[in-house]
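Re: export button greyed out
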Amino acid sequence: MAQSALDERTRRELIALLPRFRRFAWGLTGGSLDDADDLVQAACERAIARIDQWEPGTRLDSWIFRIMQTIHIDQIRSEARHARHLQTVETVSEASFDGAREAENYLTLAAVRKAINTLSEEQRAVVMLVCVEGYSYKETSEILEVPIGTVTSRLTRARAVLQRRVGGMSGAVDAVPG
Amino acid sequence: MTRFDEATLAAYVDGEVDDETAREVELALERDTESQAFVRGVRESTALVRVALNEALHKPVPERILAVLEAPADTGRGWLRGAAQRRAALAEWRFALPLAATFVTLMIGLGGGYVIADWRTEQNALVAERSRALVQTMVQRMVAEALENELSGSTVIWNDPGTGASVSVTPVRTYRQKNGRFCREFRLEMTHMGVLRTRHGLSCRSSEGVWETTHILPDGEIDGI
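Workaround output, generated via the alternate export path:
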């Protein structure tokens, strides 16, 4: 029944957006791509079931990002994964970021992802939407249903963390823009 | 001179300030090295985060997800069409803006520390320095050339029989930013004094036709010293 409400154009748009959904889910969950796919799948299922709640003319991707964020937070709450997750992250970061010198030598894409994992769930969602998906602060605040001030303060804190974690890169990368 | 707080500087990087504030920030940035460093840091970490997660874009979408969105038999997978559109956009851009690439910034991490650590004698240091400079020059030329002229997946290669140095550049992906700028990710392999190094780079093309490489990342698997 719900399936019939999903018209061909919307279905195609959803399929076209899948790579971006997976990237978002991957950043959000901070685990394997397989875990991320669980979230994408759940979000697609929910979107199809509730397609009548989507307002045609508004961005489909934003709506799905919101659904993913909601499901993700629900999962964390229900499975009480949060504490365990933080613990894991702590261990990982201790091992991988033993001083700026080492960061220089060992920093890889995977290490950047680890740095993202050290952010709180809330910070990560903001970073994913603003830095990765390129949403404006206003759009981000609408997707997450929080005030803009909350978006900017989460972003500021997240960036301070990222700066500490991947800032050691600048030595290795020797970036000189401009 | 106005001093901007970090939130404003970050908002500037994110394109969230109005034109007038942007001009003021730029003026302040010319003089204030601390703000410059902060802005550079924000740009850098933002680009790193983006590049680090892009891997997810390239992995095939599992059947179980496609099954949820079950297609009528005659339709293909939409995002392949997306790729075709990207290629078409690239072709269009190549037609419109040929041959203007020069490089303003490039950092490839062949730097001093490595040379000193691995080439201890003065003689070797000189040879290494010459080879390093040569590789660096070639990397700049070739990255610009490859990004401007090669389709994703094709590789340009340079070898120097004299020093055994070689450089190969492969654009891996092209996309268009919201502001219309074209960006390309590329893979870079450099052999310098017998050591192979692999890098992943991200470069965006300015409106003046300059490829600005914002990031070069080491490849952990090959280059995990």
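The first helix of chain A runs from residue 2 to 5. The button fix ships in the next patch.
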